[in-house]
Each structure stands twice: as structure tokens, then as C-alpha cells.
Amino acid sequence: MSGGIDSSVAAMLLLEQGYELVGVTFRTFDSIRESCLAKEKGCCSVESMMEAKHLAEQLGFEHHILDYRDIFRRHVIQNFTDEYMHGRTPNPCVLCNSHIKWGELLRAADEFGCEKIATGHYARIAERDGHYYLRRAADQKKDQTYFLWMLTEENLWRTVFPLGDLTKDEVRELARQHGFEKLSMKRESQEICFVPNNDYRRFLVEQGCTIEPGDYVDETGRVLGRHEGFACYTIGQRKGLGIALGTPQFVTKIDAAANRVTLGTHDALYTREVQLKDGWWRGRSLEPVMAQIRYRSQPTGAHYRPEQAQLLFDEPVWAVTPGQSAVIYQDDLLVGGGLIQ
Question: Of these residues, 36, 93, 114, 193, which one is catalytic?
Fold first, then answer.
């Protein structure tokens, strides 16, 4: 329970369906003092935890605040800084889901005597041929299966997604119907939870990373100007480059070892072959699939070669970014995924 509308409405629906609930909220990355928790006031993180706690009290089930800051730092934040400092662009939500929400949370469920866990994610679960699959949510605009591709079958058979068949508007209406008008109007955060104001550079420096200026170069290696540090950029970036060359320029390559950022044209970012690592796949080789290379991108027709861990797209895709996830679907079932190399 984050204190937001999705997990709150999920709890309301589960109660109506007859489930016995135990609510949990995580402490992951913050500087909350114990005195703030005791007073139930302070920064927004405290307020969110207390909102979740108070909602559980109103609905009549127990609630716990679990301190996962150490393990979150080891598994999520360390990976986040390591990836950026190697010139890649990580997606911390994917790791948080697999290691925290479906790792530590399942262990907590066992301790509380709970058979299943539930979240406010927009996703569904399907059983086909004796296997459990993630299935896209009914609300395609809110579908979050992209962030859940690392979940195992064991994770899925212990999971309930109460919002999978609902739209966001329907979820807001349910909150109003249950008497939570203020909750129904609550805005969603689009930022990474542990990066204040989406300021990646400042966060990396605060974590002890050294970010120094280096050279912008073109595809031939010719120096074009100076950048603020390779970790400040991502593949496909155009805005905020701080350089004018007469034509629109995009980041096409990041060389962490040499602290060089390559700039090129929009068309230079198209490719049809994508190499993956640390992935899984359930299907037949070269079977037609749809693959998604970032959360907001449209799925694109492709074939997957499991032996080479390689995606071959039917049409060129733009700005494939190392560190992001490529997630593979057949119809609305998630059948594989991997990290882009």
C-alpha cells in the first residue's frame, strides 16, 4: 500500500470479495527520522505511509510498515548507479518489482500467514497449458506488465491483481463510491521514487559518483564540443545537450570508459537487431512476436532467437537503449523479456 489510489482501491475490492487482508507499506529510500514516524508528520514519504496506515484502519484491517532500506539500496540503488556509470540507462522499477515486491514481500506474506499477495498494478494473470502468464491489463494506456517481466510463475500463482480488468477512470469512480473523494482526485507521480525532482545528476553525485566533463564527438570521432559528463545523457536524447551544430542532434552512443558522447542524426538511431541478456523465453524459435523496448513505446513485430538472445524486428526501431528492458508478447500474453545490451 503506497497511500495512492490504486493500491487503496485494490484493498477495497479485495475486502468486498471476502479476502482477509494484511496491509504493508515499505520504507525504501528516505531520510525519515524515527521522531517523524512517531508524530505521523513530516516529508511526503511519511505522509504517504501514514495515509496507507489510516486507510487500513478505516477499512478495518491490520497494517505494517516494513523497513527495506538496506536491501533496496543493495539491489536497486546500487544497480541504478552502476548502470549509469557504465553508460547505460537502467529501469529501477523492474528490479524493485522482482527483488522487493515479489521477493521480500513474499517472505513477509509467509511470516504473516498470507497465501497470496496483491498490488495495485494494472495487469492480469492467465493460465495456459499448465503455465501462468502475465496478461496485459484491460486499460491499455495503464498496462504495467512491462515493469513486471521478471516475475516467475511461482510469483504469479501467489499474486492477485484486483485492478487488471478496470480502467483508471473506473478506479477513481470506485474510490468516490466508497466515500474517498480526496483519494479519487490524487495525482500520480511520474518520477522515480528515490530521485528527488528527477535530478539524476545530483542523485548520482550524492551517491559518491564522479561526473566530469568530456567530449562530444560525431560518428567519425571528430570532437564537436564539451558535455557535462556521460552519465547525464541517454540514447535518443535531444534536449539539454547544450550544443548547437546547425541541425538537430541526438545522442547515438555513450562511451563510459572514454567519457565520450556521440551525436548524430535522427535516422542514425534506427536498428533492426537487438541483443539481450539475463532474459527468459517461453515459446518456439522465430515465432512471430510483438516486442516493446521501453514503457511508452508501441509494441513492434519481431522474431526472437533464444539461442542468440537476439530480437530481429520486422521494421527498424528507434533509439534502442542499453539498460532498458525489451519485453516480448504474443497477443496479450507476456512470453519473455531481457535487458538490452
Answer: 193
CA distance 156 to 134: 8
Contact 51, 41 (CB under 8 A): no
Angle 290-293-297 from CA coordinates, rounded to 5°: 85
- Find the length of the chain: 341
pLDDT at position 124 is 98
| Contact predicate 135/123, CB 8 Å | yes
Query: Band of the pLDDT at 285, cuts 50, 70, 90?
Result: low
Q: Is 96 annotated as catalytic?
A: yes
Nearest to 319 by CA among 271, 263, 276: 271
193 is catalytic: yes
Contact 100, 75 (CB under 8 A): yes
User: Which residues make Cβ contacts (< 8 Å) with residue 245, sequence separation at least 6?
Assistant: 224, 263
- Tell me the CB-side half-sphere exposure of residue 53, using CA atoms within 13 A: 15
Q: Which of 4, 23, 171 is nearest to 108 (CA)?
A: 23
Cα pseudo-dihedral 81, 75, 94, 241, rounded to 10: 0
pLDDT, one tens digit per residue, over 77-105 is: 999 999 999 999 999 999 999 999 999 99
Marked catalytic residue, from 36, 96, 114, 232: 96
Report CA dihedral (117, 119, 121, 122) to the nearest 10 degrees: 70
Rounded Cα–Cα distance for residues 259 and 163 (Å): 45
Long-range CB contact pairs, 140-144, < 8 A, 24+: 141/168, 142/167, 142/168
Q: Is residue 61 a contact partner of residue 23, using CB atoms and an 8 Å limit? A: yes
Report the amino acid identity of residue 205.
V
Per-residue pLDDT reduced to its tens digit, 54-80: 999 999 999 999 999 999 999 999 999
Distance CA 297, CA 300 (A): 9
